[in-house]
User: Fold this.
Amino acid sequence: MMDMATFMQHITNGVSVGSLYALIAIGYTMVYGILRLINFAHGDIFMMAAYFMVFGIITFQLPWYLTVIITIVLTALLGMLIEKCAYSTLRDAPKTSILISAIGVSYLLENLSTYLFTGKPRAFPEIAGLAQTFQIGSVTMQRVSVVIPIVAVILGIILLFIINKTKLGMAMRAVSKDYEIARIMGIKIDRVIASTFAIGSALAAVGAILWGVKYPQVQPMMGVMPGLKCFIAAVIGGIGNIKGAMLGGFVLGLGEILLIALLPQLTGYRDAFAFIFLIIILLVRPTGLLGEKITEKV
Assistant:
């Protein structure tokens, strides 16, 4: 039988992983909430952010704190560039066309990074002792495992403030309701959508930095499974709902870790758990835990 110390160890790991899922899932849910677009390239933007960190610290020998800032800025710009090149001209096209474009961007980033950086895994640089461990009672954990949930909650609160209390957030909410009406009312649609992609990509960059510290290996396909799981987290919570994306991330992360803890013989099926859980949620509550019914425009 599992003792309390081991159980708390698993809970800590689950909260840490769930916080990472939540950070990345917010990017999915923001874009979907405004454009009804599932940005399947989001996981690969996350991967590019990890490479920015590797090259900034290891290749260019920049201080880690400066590299973090540069990585977040570059990743936000990359998100805006993708939106401008791949999505902006397809806003009035059928949904299928935009979806195919998103998948194309994902494959482009994966193959381009494989060509430029090779498929050989690279070590993620250590950041200011975050990978070091400490002990509380009989529970041992990495410092980053404590930092991740704190960062996730703080960024979630800041994002909710932006959405609910600022002019940009008001414009985002207007565009999410009807961007044609919003355009007629004088809202600069292109600026709002670019800002949405920039914020979502910046959150993916923060997630990539913390992910790299916790799992210190970078390679071109590293964004595929986290990207899928964070999309699942967004759907579980209610895609289009920021609070739902965060809740979905925490639920999925805790569920994965507790599955392994309680049923160690199913460790090899950890990734499958996410998809099974998604199917169950969609059968029981198709709009997600915090989702609301959405009427698609025809």
Remarks:
- The first helix runs from residue 4 to 35.
- The longest strand covers residues 133-136.
- Residues 294-298 have pLDDT under 50 and may be disordered.
- The domain at 4-284 is CATH 1.10.3470 (ABC transporter involved in vitamin B12 uptake, BtuC).
